[in-house]
Amino acid sequence: MPIVHLFLAFLFLQTPKPAAIAGLVANAATGAPVRKARLTLQFADRNYAAVSDASGRFAVAEVAPGTYNVHIECEGFLVMAQSLKIAEDQHVTDLAFRLTPLGVIAGKVLDENGEPLSQISVEAQIDTFSAAGRKRLPAGMTTTDDRGEYRIFDLPPNRYFVMATNPRSYSLLGGRVHADAVEMAYVTTWFPNVTDGSQATPQVLAAGAELDGIDLHMHKQRVFHVRGKAQLPPGQRGAVSVESCGDGPGIGVNAAILRDGTFDAGGLVAGNWCLIVNQVVDNSHAFYANQRVTIADHDMNNVNLTLTPAAVVRGQILVDGAAPAKLQHIPIRLDPIEQPGRGAGSAAKEDGSFVVENVSPGQYRLMNVGLSSMYLKTIRVNGQDAANGIVQVPEGGAQLTLLFSTDSGEVSGTVEGGGAFVSAEGVNSVTGLPVLGGVTPEGKFLIRNLAPGDYKILAWDIHDIGLLQYADFRKLFESRAVPVTIHLKDHESVQLTAVNAAEIEAALPRLR
Amino acid sequence: MTRIVVVSLWAAALHAQTVQGVAVNSATHKPVAGATVQLIGPADEDEHEIYRTSTDAAGRFHFERVAPGRYHAIAEAQGFTRMLAARAPSVGVEAVGAPEVSIPMVPASVISGRISDQDGDALRYVSVEALHYVYRGGKKVLDSAVSARTNDRGEYRIFGLPPGRYYVRSTSRARGSTAFSPLFFPGARDISQATQLEAAPGAELRSIDIVMRPDSLHSISGRVVDAQTGQAVPEMYVIARLNGDSYANGAAQMTDSFTIADLLPGKYVVSSQQFGGNAPKAGRVAIDLGNADLTGIVLPLSAGLEITGTVRGLPAGSKELRLFLQPENPAYDNYSENIIEKGTFTFHNVRPDIYHLLWNVPKGVYVQSIKMGDRTLPSDRVDLNGTIAPLAIQLANDGARVQGTVRNVAGEPVPGAVVSMAADPSYDVWSTTCDDTGHFDIRDIAPGEYKLLAFQDAPQGAPQDPDFRKPFEKSAIKLQVLPSTQQKLDLVAVQ
């Protein structure tokens, strides 16, 4: 209560004349008015809300001046956020917000006789990119109904791969399964009726579009078992997760490890599979196995999984050769190079020391380690310099030293042809990742804290940071890069022309 | 040791049998092709022996080399109701052979419709449930059988539904400051105003549409105080949970009061609890939020009760005795305690409320009496609101045994019939399910005068409910059970 009184008193003393705003919410694809859109205006502790009427119109009377975050939400549209400066006594009546409508992919899943298949999981997948490469991830999913029909809605405009999977829907009681010698099952199928994901054809979904008739025909194929042993520590219950090894044929299964250590994973199509055990005994002990098997034309029996205890990675951050006194909070993340794999992470303490527990032996990429006003100069693993940010963790664990330096240079410049980001890729980069800087609406950029050395600079008119971190993608535009040599405590200036969105779209198919 | 294992494996292989049969549509009596059939065997801890195959074009299935034992045969296929292993036909595989098995498969029903707002606009992501009454712990409760979610057109489709009588309820999340109270078809807030729908096997109930209207949201506010001193307790987190709902809204009481905003009208339990310390305090209060903000709620915090007690008459060396305190208000917490050998128990930090004391007692004994202090309790109902005294539970081993066969009016045995024995007053209802020859065998029955009833096709758990039994009680058989006796009698099932 006292706070409100104070605020009223403030208003009374200042007497700023309130503004009034009004406008229209429309569908960006069709121009049609959008009703029931919810607008919220927020600035400091001031909040206003409005809902658009049947003709898409909204109005907020008595808005105090300020620079507001405007948020517009409506079901079936992408959320829109932008900032809006409202001056004292300003009367605006022609604000226009154009919301991007979301789309629909719909169809049927049918069996080899054209009969509907119900309870089939259907995913609309998109390609996503990161330093680790391309990964196809679901953007929407649903299950077919009793008529075999599916409808995935609220999809942003994109290129979608449509995948149908038969979830093995037995009444799952744990135990020892005695199955038929020859088993057949509906296998994972992509549109247009291919069982190899790399042969799938993406469907272009425009804003607000409905792609109907995306029907999938599933066929039965011979499926196999992988049986074997995985000896867990006494008293532990766990499971073997059978996953696609990245180049594998589809969706895997989980198989319980029985008390006698045996497991039986069924329903697997021929191809490469990774058998993974990831057993965390308590917070500091984990056991891990990752073994690749290739199923040809018969069940695989007697597969012995060797569980190795996870290692500990200890580390120290040094700044200009010395341990820091009061380091800012910095997360340490190790991402596995081999997929599927298991990442690990922790955070450094104020003195720069860190301990990452439960790291399965293998190769990792050290992700996004950054400290303001310095750069990562060297990564040392057990006394050896590591290249491209790749950290090899042996079975006995590793000692990691991260050397940061404040002896940096910087680059600035102008960008023509729009552009959202500028990337500066070090020729001898320690992390293997480019340093990114934002481009202002006026077309200017500044990237500080660069290690002295040779760089390739590029400007990009896209917002997908993951794509810019993907080395193979940047390589496609290598010829457009401007070479720059950054010197210690010096400033370079460059003029860039942004790689535009259409060029990027045209280049993406070359990324296979 | 190794030699013995080899011998027993060889013996099992020698006695392994072929099991065959047919999966049949229970409505049309036609065979079901392409069904997955599983024989679920006895569990060693939670590891079952499972045999799996599929039916051929004639609906027939065939298992080779099945080890002797008792199995449940379940069959699954598209368009049919999912079967629970415990309710599936039971198959006894003997060393000398196995009978032909017929597995009835019930065609599933469909309920479909559209959920819209007051303007006719589609409401998406609305959860729509088919609800029916089931029996749990001898009580009739509303349960969600199958649920679905509306799509961008507001359409839903509930399929795979076991035929039966259902209510349909739609529950929508809030959209901004607009919120909707859950509604039962055709548009009722309360189930007493709702229409019960009859879902027939393999049939579809169409146009089960519900129009949801926005409700105004209100806040509740009040203070958390110490029950002893009446002083405000700062820095408590207070939550409000709608009865029967798993969602909770919460807000922090920073200084001397709390406010929880944006609540739909309804009956809530408002609660708060301390964590850590020797005697963490907790409190709760039931409120009814109408169409206005509710202020001035006082939520008193008190330390929980220590409920101690003894159990006498426990068989030597038995490890399996477990006691539960089940609150009468289902929105409140359960407590459970193991008693191993020593015969004493303590429930820690129990909220003062009315509870039912439930138990799992070992074979060979029954609960003869429950006392609180010197007072013998007439039933399992324990009121912890007043003066508390230690509980004394007396077990006895002079229970009786009653066995027999349940037949239908035509004189045929009824496999799977449920027999219930209830006395008044009594601490317990004895109930069992007949085996596949219609035979039942109930042990450890407390001496007394009982009414016996046998039910064919009763909903699971229903025979334990006095309200369910009541209409049938005129058909009940009265039986005087004397200590340490054995009786045999045959019953005729009521339908």
Task: Give structural notes.
- The complex is a heterodimer of chains A (512) and B (495).
- Chain A has 512 residues and is mainly beta.
- Chain A is built from four helices and 42 strands.
- In chain A, a hairpin with an 8-residue loop joins β37 and β38.
- The longest helix of chain A has 13 residues, at 2-14.
- The termini of chain A are far apart.
- Mean pLDDT of chain B is 86; it is low at 1-12.
- Classes of the chains: A mainly beta (512), B mainly beta (495).
- Chains A and B meet through β11 and β13 of A and β2, β3, β4 and β11 of B.
- β13 of chain A pairs parallel with β3 of chain B.
Output mean pLDDT of chain A. Answer: 88
What is the 3D form of chain B? globular
Structural class estimated from helices and strands of chain B: mainly beta
**Low-confidence stretches of chain B at least 5 residues in length (pLDDT < 50)?**
1-12
| Poorly predicted spans of chain A | 1-11
Assembly level: heterodimer
Tell me the strand percentage band of chain B: over 45%
Query: What's the gyration radius of chain A in Å?
Result: 28 Å
Spatial ordering of strands, largest sheet of chain B: 21-20-23-24-25-19-22
Largest sheet composition of chain A: 5 strands, antiparallel
Shape of chain A: globular
Most extensive chain contact? A-B, 29 and 38 residues
> Percentage of helical residues of chain B?
under 10%
The count of β-strands of chain A is: 42
Short account of what is shown:
The complex is a heterodimer of chains A (about 500) and B (about 500). Chain A has about 500 residues and is mainly beta.
Give short descriptive properties of this protein:
heterodimer; A: mainly beta; 5-stranded antiparallel β-sheet; 4 helices; disordered N terminus; B: 495 residues; mainly beta; 7-stranded mixed β-sheet; 2 helices
Present the secondary structure layout.
The complex is a heterodimer of chains A (512) and B (495).
Chain A: H1 2-14, E1 19-27, E2 38-43, E3 46-51, E4 57-63, E5 66-73, E6 80-86, E7 91-99, E8 103-110, E9 121-130, E10 133-143, E11 149-155, E12 158-165, E13 175-178, E14 183-186, E15 189-190, E16 203-205, E17 210-211, E18 216-217, E19 220-230, E20 238-244, E21 253-257, E22 262-268, E23 271-282, E24 285-295, E25 300-305, E26 308-309, E27 311-319, E28 330-336, E29 344-348, E30 353-359, E31 362-367, E32 375-381, E33 384-385, E34 390-393, E35 398-405, E36 409-416, E37 421-426, E38 435-438, E39 444-450, E40 453-460, H2 465-468, H3 471-476, E41 482-486, E42 491-497, H4 501-507
Parallel strand pairs in A: 1-7, 8-17, 8-18, 19-25, 27-35, 36-42
Antiparallel strand pairs in A: 1-4, 2-3, 2-5, 5-6, 8-11, 9-10, 9-12, 12-15, 12-16, 14-19, 19-22, 20-21, 20-23, 23-24, 24-26, 27-30, 28-29, 28-31, 31-34, 32-33, 32-35, 36-39, 37-38, 37-40, 40-41
Chain B: H1 2-15, E1 17-25, E2 36-44, E3 47-54, E4 60-66, E5 69-76, E6 90-93, E7 101-105, E8 109-117, E9 127-136, E10 139-149, E11 155-161, E12 164-171, E13 179-180, E14 183-184, E15 197-199, E16 204-205, E17 210-212, E18 214-215, E19 218-226, E20 236-242, E21 248-253, E22 258-263, E23 266-273, E24 281-289, E25 294-303, E26 305-312, E27 322-327, E28 335-338, E29 344-350, E30 354-360, E31 366-372, E32 375-376, E33 381-383, E34 391-396, E35 400-407, E36 418-423, E37 429-433, E38 439-445, E39 448-455, H2 466-469, E40 477-481, E41 486-488, E42 491-492
Parallel strand pairs in B: 1-7, 8-16, 8-17, 19-25, 26-34, 35-41, 35-42
Antiparallel strand pairs in B: 1-4, 2-3, 2-5, 5-6, 8-11, 9-10, 9-12, 12-14, 12-15, 13-18, 19-22, 20-21, 20-23, 23-24, 24-25, 26-29, 27-28, 27-30, 30-33, 31-32, 31-34, 35-38, 36-37, 36-39, 39-40
